[in-house]
Amino acid sequence: MAPSARPSPSAWSLLDAGEEIDYKAVSGVEAFNDANDPSAAYVGVYKYDASNVPVWQSEVFGEVPAS
Prior knowledge:
It is elongated and about 55 Å long. It contains 1 helix and 4 strands, in the order αββββ. Helices cover 12% and strands 34% of the residues. 0% of the residues are buried.
């Protein structure tokens, strides 16, 4: 693990004590499943204009079905 990606010493203490840590990304709280894979996300929908420039249209929310 890169030094910048390592949990802080206090995070290590929590992990050693069996506590769960909820990761909060710069973009906000993300949903993860039990395998720590993303389980839900918003996707931006864009349409290209006549000059081939992407123009935002909407966002769509989706969830990965539980297996």
